[in-house]
Amino acid sequence: MRGGELLGRAGLALLLMAAGAGARPRPAAAGGQPRSSVVLVACDSLDGRLTFFPGNQTVDLPSINFMKRYGTLFLNAYTNSPICCPSRAAMWSGLFTHLTESWNNFKGLDPGYITWMDLMEKHGYHTQKFGKLDYTSGHHSVSNRVEAWTRDVHFLLRQEGRPMVNLTGDRKRVRVMEADWRNTDKAVNWIKEEAVNLTQPFVLYLGLNLPHPYPSPYAGENFGSSTFLTSPYWLEKVNFEAIKIPKWPSLSEMHPVDYYSSYTKNCTGEFTKEEVRNIRAFYYAMCAETDAMLGEIISALGDTGLLRKTVVIFTADHGELAMEHRQFYKMSMYEGSSHVPLLVMGPSVKEQQEIPNVVSLVDIYPTMLDIARIPIPQNLSGYSLIPLLCEQTESEVSPRGPRPSWVLSEFHGCNVNSSMYMLRTGKWKYIAYSDGFSVLPQLFDLTADPDELTNVAIKFPVIVHSLDKILRSVVNYPKVSSSVHKYNKQQFISWKQSLGQNYSSVIANLRWHQDWLKEQKKYENAIDKWL
After folding, report:
1. Which domain holds residue 228?
2. Mean pLDDT computed over 92-112
3. Tens digit of pLDDT for each residue in 251-280?
4. Residue from 299, 419, 424 nearest 357 by CA
5. Which CATH number is 280's domain given?
6. CA dihedral (122, 128, 132, 138) positive or negative
7. Residues with Cβ < 8 Å from 501, sequence gap 6 or more?
């Protein structure tokens, strides 16, 4: 398939005949069968709700639809931390964020951390990685880390460019995100030239930047990334009639943490309905381009006859709000930001199955080990997805007992002025903040209120109490919030000292420079007071 040429129905039928779909070998049951190979495609910022109704009405995603037809879709998969590095740290370690202490985009896993891929290599798998990894410490911009460290300071500064759209090229322009396409090509070539000749099973990882928004160079140091960029080719895949314009509360009615997020993301100004619709449409077009890259990988596996021997997993590190709740980006526990896509197809994975159980990215680690028939460590936060994918009973698989009926997500980074913790179970989403007292919690009934417009925490105190009790049994969140508070201060002090005489000029010219330079002394004083 040429770059981004979409898998048509006829193409898919041929692909499956070539791959021998239907005659699928049994999977990771111990014994005679060879172990399956695995391909994991992880993109950045794809809203998981686009993989099922009604979100799937907004944009044509044929590769995702192909995986749904010949595999399993998880309807309630969540990130464990809605920002790049901490989320990926959870996925590569199998541990919750408070256990790895991946507090922000600068603080992830130590470079030598043993991941599931390291263990698979040790147990005889050939391993290969292409594209975005971003799970170790020390990356992302200076602005990004300083904004995270200073979120407790009593000031309010815009840290991003205003979200905007940019149309590039013409109807022939398929490869908009060129770096991602180069990595996709490398993965395709590796499948066709290397994987096809291997005598051992392999695990291939492809990390994509899309559909993360693009940098906005006018917005200062290392810019923010507030530009939704696509070409007419991809925009034609979007069904404009199906785009929902989100309802916004007035600024005065917003939860205080939401207001801080909206302000620092430069979203508290006026936006016309047309602007909001365009931001959402361009975002969906970027998702269509992402889907085409997934299609290239599936096609390469089909062309080489490897598809029937390979478990294919597609997911994302987090979602994208795309102007829901008067915000873009992630860093929020609302569905647009925290709900991720998760689809699996391959040997013995049930076809056309939709799983309602709540799962999260920490489940990838034990799942990978399960596929490779490697004993699963008992200390992991996640549980293998194999019992759900293959309809086995839990007792056959996990000595730890059944998977819990909740998932945990937490956030400690920039654009949010409090640590937050989300417990999702049944129809409820409970969000606790900071020490559990100083900021009011939120409770949403996702069945009655899928858009999360009505916080019912005051209406259901008994539910709040019971969910808070579960949350505290998983994480001592007041203590964690306090640790993050101390970490932020220590990191900031050592950064400030390292700059010496240059401190005032460096801090003034970070992403918030447009606001900072108006009242430089005031903001420096606020920091001194905090310290």
Report:
1. 37-409
2. 88
3. 999 999 999 999 999 999 999 999 999 999
4. 424
5. 3.40.720.10
6. positive
7. none
Sign of the torsion formed by the C-alpha atoms of 212, 215, 216 and 220: positive
State the CB neighbour count (10 A cutoff) for residue 54.
11
Task: Give the model confidence (pLDDT) of 138-173 as tens digits.
Answer: 676 788 889 889 999 999 999 888 999 999 999 999
Residues whose CB falls within 8 Å of the CB of residue 75, separated by 6 or more in sequence, listed in order: 52, 354, 355, 356
- Helices and strands of the chain, counted as H and E runs: 19, 15
Task: Give me Rg for the CA atoms of the chain.
Answer: 23
Contacts 24+ apart (CB under 8 A), 16-19: 16/70, 16/302, 16/307, 18/302, 18/303, 18/305, 18/307, 19/301, 19/302, 19/305, 19/306, 19/307, 19/308
Q: How confident is the model at residue 32 (pLDDT cuts 50, 70, 90)?
A: low
> Which amino acid is residue 330, in one-letter code?
K
Task: Tell whether the model's pLDDT for residue 105 goes beyond 90.
Answer: no
Q: Across-strand partners of 311?
A: 38
The reply to whether 267 belongs to the active site is: no
pLDDT in tens, 60-76: 999 999 999 999 999 99
- The pLDDT of residue 12 is 52
CA distance 413 to 148: 5
Q: pLDDT-based confidence at 223, cuts 50/70/90?
A: low
Strand partners, 76: 358
Whether 438 is covered by a domain: the verdict is: no
Q: What one-character DSSP code corresponds to residue 238?
A: B
Residue 375: CB atoms within 10 Å: 10
Looking at the domain assignment, is residue 512 inside a domain?
no
Q: How many domains does the structure of the chain reveal? A: 1
Which of 84, 267, 287, 414 is catalytic? The answer is 84
Quote the CA–CA distance of 190 and 121 in Å, as a whole number: 17
Angle at 230 between CA 280 and CA 313, to 5 degrees: 80
The two structure tokens encoding residue 338: 């925290």
Q: Is residue 214 part of a domain?
A: yes
Please name which of 502, 497, 437, 481 lies closest in space to residue 152, comparing C-alpha atoms. Answer: 481
Q: Return d(Cα 280, Cα 165) in angstroms, integer.
A: 9
Helix (H, G, I), strand (E, B) or coil at 342: strand
Are 105 and 145 contacting, i.e. CB atoms less than 8 angstroms apart?
yes
Query: Cα separation of 139 and 8, whole Å?
Result: 39
Percent of the chain with pLDDT over 90: 80
Q: What is the mean pLDDT of residues 304-318?
A: 97
Q: 15: pLDDT confidence band, cut at 50, 70 and 90? A: low
Smallest CA-to-CA distance from 201 within 365, 27, 64, 349 is with 27
Q: Looking at the domain assignment, is residue 85 inside a domain? A: yes
